[in-house]
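User: I'm curious whether this sequence folds into something compact or stays loose and floppy. Could you predict its structure so I can see for myself?
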Amino acid sequence: MMKKYFTYTLLFGAPLFLCQNRTDGNVVYQQKWTELEKENEALAFDAEVRLSDAELKLDKKLFELRKQIVNEADKQKYPLYNSSFNEMKPLIEKSKLFEVFQSMPKGGLLHTHSGGFTDVKWVIAAARKYNECYVYDQKDNDQYIFGQLAFFEKGKVPKGFVSLDKKLTAEPGFEKELQELLILKRDNLCSYSDYWIEFEKRFKRINLLLPYRPFFKEYYLKGFQDLVKNKVQHLEIRFIFDELYDFEHGKYALKTSITDLQDIVKKIHLSDPQFSLKLIYSSFKFLDPESIEKQLEIAYQFKKEFPDMISGFDLVADEAAGNSIYSFQKDWTKLKDLNKKYGVDLPLFLHAGESTSVFNKNVLDISLLNNKRIGHGLNLIYFPKAMEQIKKQDKLVEVSPISNQVLGYVSDLRNHPARVLLSNGVQCSINSDDPSVYGYDGLSYDFWAAFVYWELDMKALKKLVFNSINYSSLNDNERKQALVYLNKEWDHFIQKTNLALN
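Assistant: Here's the prediction. I'll summarize afterward.
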């Protein structure tokens, strides 16, 4: 009898026992999986953000809008992930999601350049109004390039330049050709070197326009107005200083750029009193340390005289072709002495890691310097210890998705390094870099690209927007006021968009 009972136990009891073990194992596995998921989420840059019921409601609606874009692209066999920004631009502009981002308050634009953010169509139309504006319509030479614009006094026009207005009147098709010469489109380029050669040509074609004081004032007024319209309340420009001039008075003092910009901001304040501006004094990586030492002296002098306008110092230009940050170490060691000499602090806002190469080690310097924000930081993910230090030091990475694609650093934006930075708790903001050079204005396109390609949610969007004020160069009182305004605008946006998407 006992033997028979044992046989039944083996036949029927063992499977039940084994099934119970498997169930227990599944529960343990699920618990560990959930725990691991939560631990990863706790490391993310937006981990502390808590959304209101209204924000959670909008979060679901934005998720559906992105889903529709992806599904429609799949249905139409549209290469959503293998298209350049220029190819994607019409699709972006037609989407409901773009309308949402157009109306979304964006806080601050912390990374853009003088000469790179005012619409090129407007630039051509505005320049054309000046009788003294000319365009170079001959083949490139050592001094000028085809399509280069400039102002000249009558009787002092260099050979090869013709009146811009007369050229456009005689050849109506030249206006579109000139627009193409001022906009960089990645799909027309084939190599990394070409990107930067063509990129720099875009700036060269307008760099003789901006020092002309009447045009300078028009250019920045238009640029500021467009940014305010796009819901940008604070702006920080990597500013290259040049002597302004006109044909009546000749050249003006270098600081005239600052006082003119202050006057332009006052005009903006008549309709938009919340708008604010800071200038990051910028020089070039290809200069030698002695030249940069002189540039730092000027920057400190300006900081002392205009403490509310000058916020920091940067070096710009192609990182692959210029000097490393490390090569200027003698200049960086003198910063404390300069602080004492002028009685002001001038932090660094250096471009670093705008590269896909591990041989570019500029990001290593960032954690060792008084460098509050990092321009681009694409290859930071290759240096885990530096990334860890920058996270601990609470330094912000200024990310420019569209610029990074157009310049050839990231082809498929789903693979943008910022996704790694965000998930590892490195704070970032969204920026446009040189939008006019890429054929757009404002910040809506960059937010659209980040949201769609990086699979962001409302928590991430909110954190990115508020980071742009919290990590700005605004002083404590200015920041407090800016946050009050941004919170009010954000709540209004949530409420209005929820109603619009019902």
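Summary: The first strand starts at residue 107 and ends at 113. The chain has a mean pLDDT of 94.
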